[in-house]
Design a protein that fits this description.
Four Helix Bundle (Hemerythrin (Met), subunit A); binds guanosine-5'-triphosphate; single chain; alpha/beta; Rossmann fold; 12% strand; binds magnesium ion
Amino acid sequence: MSEAAADKPLWRRIKAGLGKTRRRIAESVGDLLHGERQIDESVLEELETALLTTDVGLDATERIIQALTNQVQRRQLNNAEALRNALAALLKEQIADLQAPFQIGEGRPFVVFAVGVNGTGKTTTLGKLANRLQGQGLRVLLAAGDTFRAAAVAQLKQWGERNGVDVVAQGQGADSASVVYDAVMAAKARGHDVVLVDTAGRLQAKTNLMEELKKIHRVVRRLDQRAPQEVLLVLDAGVGQNALSQVAQFDAAVGVTGFVVTKLDGSARAGVVFAIAEQLRQKRAPKPIYFIGVGEGRDDLKPFNGDAFVDALLAPE
Ligand SMILES: Nc1nc2c(ncn2[C@@H]2O[C@H](COP(=O)(O)OP(=O)(O)OP(=O)(O)O)[C@@H](O)[C@H]2O)c(=O)[nH]1
Ligand SMILES: [Mg+2]
């Protein structure tokens, strides 16, 4: 099977998940990308607006439009297909550095944190991830490090029960660092490969919660210098450009190693992925988007594939 053929089902599923953003692009510039329009500099203004309204962000949009303008001036883009191909190539290039497989590497247990502001999808993402990793034959333990919200432990336990994954938890209000300590020790004793640590959603401004997160991080680091091997910042695509400040703040607090962008299915702002790439590029600190969330089901966590992502966004209805 060719590589393109092998990718097709993934592409199709992502296309469905990105429906809202895709439709917004198709509605605003579909005639331009898929029709018979003459390509000149004025059509690029419409494209610029479409990119901005899907949250690609000013900087990335400007760079892309500038590159297209140059090509139009050199008369390299004289039909819709040429424009669509050029745009796709630029968008793919923009996020090429963000692609890396999520791998369970060295260290047992391999410790993964999910961090992020309230309600971005941390708990759900860990549930889906537990399912995925168990499917790869790894022994997974979930740690209910969110002791802040009453329903949080129950929510994680429910995910655990549904998928046959062990959960380490204490009651609401317990010290989250102690829960995580217990979980790592339990994993060592029982031979789990991976500990997935759920943490409380926090407002970036709440320093005490950020301090608590740093404390959990320190406790785990003390148990194993290499841990946590991954700190996943879970971002809700719906917040658009606001995601950028979350990246900066969580990275400063606990050193983010990669991202999960959730709720792409419910948002017309999937372009934020390009804005994140732009921010990382400017800081010369590329980090991968390991996964995207395209639904609430356990199979709705997909590895991020930049080319498939762009092809899905630009696909006609
Ligand atoms: N449509 C859709 N819904 C999602 C996705 N990921 C999470 N959700 C939903 O978003 C809501 C919040 O998810 P949680 O996993 O509880 O978020 P959280 O970050 O753990 O929230 P806190 O612990 O309160 O900070 C739930 O209703 C999830 O089902 C996704 O990719 N797509
Ligand atoms: Mg949660």
